[in-house]
Design goal:
The structure holds two protein chains of two kinds. Chain A contains no helices and eleven strands. Chain A is mainly beta. The termini of chain B are far apart. Classes of the chains: A mainly beta, B mainly beta. Chains A and B meet through strand 4 and strand 5 of A and strand 6 of B.
Amino acid sequence: EAQVTQNPRYLITVTGKKLTVTCSQNMNHEYMSWYRQDPGLGLRQIYYSMNVEVTDKGDVPEGYKVSRKEKRNFPLILESPSPNQTSLYFCASRTGTGKGEQYFGPGTRLTVT
Amino acid sequence: GNSVTQMEGPVTLSEEAFLTINCTYTATGYPSLFWYVQYPGEGLQLLLKATKADDKGSNKGFEATYRKETTSFHLEKGSVQVSDSAVYFCALRNNNAGNMLTFGGGTRLMVKP
């Protein structure tokens, strides 16, 4: 089954404690991205990756890092989380042509206290 | 830049009522337009799309027509069901912006039996 998986699905942490949210896709997609969803703001892109070792900032990259060492994985790293990063996070992937459907993971709800 | 504006929710309807969720956009060039649906606890799923002016996207009884003259892509359904209760996102993808998706704020639909 074609899918995007994320772990963990729920996470409660404290300010300043580094965390990583993993994302993996099994569709051999070149393009992967991370979004955060906040009430009334829709989804805003954090980072994206056009292919292995190629990453770039989205609309709201501050406080986040990503890496793309393998085609299937695209982890999101919060080096020093803060309460304003409390949000619902989605990973997504699609083919690199730009014309294919974007597939979303199930979401990770992060709370930073 | 690109932006998407959709009506604020929640929208509450009785079963079998007619649904309209308004969406307007601002973009340069010729974007593709999308409606995504998010059921409770899940990620976003593509509902329908239109890639050029006057195209009509349709799926599961939902329809939306790409209106370039009014820069709109309103979502409609003739008879909603309880199972349609979800959050609906309008989005655009612009080739001029690296094929990134820009989302509206989302509209929650609640259908009562």
